[in-house]
Design goal:
With 313 residues, the chain is of the alpha+beta class. It folds into two domains: 103 residues, PAS domain (Beta-Lactamase, 2-Layer Sandwich), CATH 3.30.450.20; 167 residues, Alpha-Beta Plaits (2-Layer Sandwich), CATH 3.30.70. It is built from eleven helices and nine strands. Strands 2-1-5-4-3 form a five-stranded antiparallel β-sheet. Helix 5 packs antiparallel against helix 7. The relative contact order is 0.09.
Amino acid sequence: MKAVKHSAMNRSRLRFKRMRDYAEAIVQTVRDPLVVLDAKLRIKSVNQAFCSTFELQATKIHNRFIYTLSSGAWKFNNLRLLLNELLAQNSETPHCEVNSYFSGKGHKTMLMNARRILGVNTSKPLILLAIEDITERKQAQHALEKLVKSFKQDSLTDPLTGLYNRRGFLTLGAQFLKIGHRLGKGIFVLFMDMDALKKINDQKGHAEGDQALIKASDILKKTFRQSDIVARMGGDEFAVVTIEQLPGSIHTLMSRLKRHSELTNVNTPPSFSVGIAYSKPSDISSIEDLLAKADADMYIQKQNKNKPHTLNI
């Protein structure tokens, strides 16, 4: 009987070791830096991405306080407050953006996410800190903002809705496409036709039609990020350029668009027929090419209005 129990315990230990090795392998291959801290903010483990990004050796920083690394580059108050609050509330933090200067690397902007976890061999709480270096993204956003300001506002925007017009879309969309691909991100171009605008104009007049267009533009502003390019292309047509990580994220965007449309406080909420084109980081399509593909897809979707949207990539 003892031999059976001993054998069962050995099998359990072996399964546990395999699971731990499996999890460790995943952590080590993640491209973003990860670090595990104890309650005193001492480093318990890091992945390879953390060491390579910040030019540190795992063996030399084990059990050191994180705010003592890199000549004090990690010594910013909002990080310590964030992590201490996390330990007290037993929760997950939202994204926290921090800026610091690293010797030899210059200023870095980082997006941090932290979660309280329990360690394998201890009941004391630990902190898993995930770090994303968004320095290039921020620089690209600032460059795009400067570009926008360099144009005359009235030549790029639609006076009725305040969105970009066709010229603004094509001009800024081309720059947006270059920036997204430089960052290794996929780009979605959406071409949208507002449903039933002609019916509103014919039955209620063009003043009501203008109000419907303004309502539609408000929905798009709520659906998409401030950094996205959202435009009224003319008449009842709208277009959007947005940077997304993966092709599958379009379903989240479409759900968000539908939800904001349904929440509009009018008797007949605006609705859209939507065509979609996706550009991988390796693609060489122009913004005009992607707009034409999204336009063609939109007419296909109009014919299949009651069917789920399918995206061919």
